[in-house]
Please model this.
Amino acid sequence: MKGPGNVSISRIISAVILFFFLLAAVSFSYSVSAEDGKNGRPDLAISSVNGRLDTNGPSTLYVLLHNNATGQATEPQEYQEVDLDPARARGITAELVSDDERVRVLSGPQMAGSLGPGENTTVEFMALAEGAEVGIYPARLRLSYSRLERVSISSEDIAPDIIFVYEDLSEQLPLPVKVVLGPKIMIQEIEGAARPGEATELEVVVANEGDEAAIDLRLEARANSPFLRAGDELVNESDEKQNYKDLEAGSEASFELMVLTEGNTTSGYAPLPCSISYRISPPGEDMDQIGKGSERREDIALLVMVEEDSHLEAWMLFFAGILIILILAAAYIYFKNFKRNGSGRSDFGKKKRLLAILHG
Model:
């Protein structure tokens, strides 16, 4: 059984709680009734889109959402445990939907939290352009969220019930997607050749045949038979740093590549596994702001010409020289003996004729 003091204290506490909620409810009701149209309700819009799709692989789109609603974009007061702003979009779910089968969205729905008037947030989507040509493709940003519609307070004296009524909303915003060719790195030529048993330097010329720049372009080689070591394994740290290049669309660049070849390698072309890596800066953004740009990596194989073993070639030239000298010596001796034999037969014939004349 409660005493008179306990009852009075509970009533005082209930009255204080009721006062603050009534104050918040009155403020909420006034803000709703004082506005028309979009005012007093969330007004979500796409503020900007950073990124684009390229034909080389999956790409990331960064969509900036903004709440254009008018209202008091302030933090809840100390006496408020919840934000009663009806213009705040709560529990936002964003989903990118493509209207063209050549653009495939790889990301599912993204949770974007809540946005009050004047606030914004960024949602990311990954998509792939499969067989799409350069151009603009239609897509939509599907949004679903809720807003606080009203607050109801019961008439109970001691423990009134506070009821928050939320309204579920959904909308779709057009979001055209740009598809570009992107950087397209091609091997133009390989200058130089590898020699068995030696470390040799090759010059690899690459060209960007795409429509965007490749940033921090790098060529890396991986040693594979008949190459014992290749690339960074044969250079120091300072030379390695010089292998990063920025390659604009339509331009060329050359990379120095060291290779160490096995001593018993047969001459001819040999494949050298390599990889080309570079970054793409999102349009209109600094690379440091969004993940330092989108990174790309391509695996290729360079066909490197392996020449004849230089030592074997020297020995072959040496033996060939000796053989030529022997042939020339043998020919000299042969012709000398032939001349000597021919002159001897001639003198013998003369003597024989002379004796015949004398006897006759």
Remarks:
- The first strand starts at residue 44 and ends at 50.
